[in-house]
Fold this sequence. Notes:
The protein is of the alpha+beta class. It contains 25 helices and eight strands. The protein has four domains: 10-223, no CATH class; 227-343, no CATH class; 356-408, no CATH class; 413-587, no CATH class.
Amino acid sequence: MPLDGARDDVEADFDILEALGARIDALAQGLVAGGQIMKTVFRWLAGHAEVPEDESVRSCLMAMAHDLELFTPSMSGSTMMDRYLRSAKATTDVDRAALRALATAQFHLVEIIGRQDEDLVSVKDVATGARLIILNSKIAAEAAGFFTAMRLCPLESGRHVLISPLFLMDEALLANARAFIKPGRPLGNGYRCAAALYREMARHGFLTMPLENDAFAAIAERLSNLREAERLALEWIALEDAADDVELIAEIRQAASLANLVDACGCFGQAEFGAPEGLADAYARIAAIWMETIARRAQAGVAGHSEVLDQAGAEIAAYIEHGQMQPGAGALFKRLRARLAFADAPGVKESGTADKSELDRAIQRIIGLRGKTVAQGCSEEEAMAAAAKVAELLARYDLSLDEVSVRRSEAIGVTMETGRSRRASIDDCVPPIAAFCDCRVWVQQGQDGSRHYIYFGLKVDVEAARFLHELIEATFEAESERFRHGEIYLGLYGGQRRTALNSFQVGLASGISGKLQAIREARQAKAVKSSGRDLVMLKHSVVDEEIDKLGLNFTTKTSRSRRAVHPPSYQVGEAAGRQFEPHPLIEA
Length: 588
């Protein structure tokens, strides 16, 4: 609608502009963190130019890449902005107006006519000839007569808000852009025009828009220098249900570290004073997840995590003492650590009041009812009633008492040191040990370069794995010593003996691994046949959920080394391995 020059609603439009900026800023965080923006810039420059050293030019290129990522359709035809708008929710009239404006954003080729006043700029759409009014106080009067491209959001007042970077086009760029214009019609294929223009400007340069203050360059520079805690907090407040976003929580857990935890607490202390709504809470929630993740890693035996919380507390206290952090940072750390200690206290997991699913609540009730026995002070009648209720709940949820025990069990880790920096034949037994005991296992390198294995699983299974690992180590020592006094070894000399001993140990590992696998398969088949349930799968699902909470990145490596094998020695070792017998308590 045409404007009559009235200014009574300009301030309201500036409120919408700020809301738009906050939405665009929040969307940018994930793109910067994921590397999409820099990947796009490098793709433009590949084989044509180096990354520009000029900070303002580099910032403008990043803002162009950001704009393109938001508005380029996927194979399904929807853009990142479309997907964002489908899930975004507004809590105020200004927010709702901002979302409506984003939903109608369009890419325009324009000629700058000039400043209308201190807040408004007049431009002409090159494709349609229409006059547009831009809400912008930064474009200098010297830009009049130049051509540019803009992504504009129309407001209900008839004005437009700019959400793309500012630049000027030379004649060559303008000629390329005009190829996308059909006479008398709005710019068709706006995203293709934007992609072509941005690519050409990245490779061959562009004219700088005369500005009083380049806000987009400041934003791009700020985004490129965000600390991890800041970036994740901005992502958190950009989502409606961040606490339930599985991908975001996983990303936060993977970033858990001493430095990031200290940063999050420090940012919380600063955010208590005039920060955007929800930002302080976001820092607190992220710090809590990092503290919990670090504590879980320490409990699982992950190297270097046992002292992290103590170190973080000491660093935060030192920063506060020297005036480099607000006292709120220390208060948050102490509060979160106290909460963590309470959550780990005996009985809390059974009686905690945290939100649980209906099934979880039923399991907690079964656990409580099973404790009601005559020996615990109940009357015989009360004990019988509790038992009947347990049976009813088990039937209702199709559970067994074994399943209840699995679901309530605590997952822990135990570390087995090897004292070696290189792999040995006995290491071939580690994965079978973990499988036999229904655990997960991974290898880590210690600070001294030595290898150690971490078995992770339900407490009783991890203890079984520890025992079995030590039993197999003792078996290797005893059987290897017996082989050294045997006929094959004594009949060889020099390097042949070393090859024979290695071959024996390779065979021994193979025999033990085969024996464990056979016993495990027989045991599992028997359990499924008798109960109709595969509790191993349930155990693995519970353990895998707990591993996810460690926020660790695992890689699988396949050993391709060729080992010279002395066949007779290998056969003797394999036969000895098949005679290996696990402890009866483990085998049960």
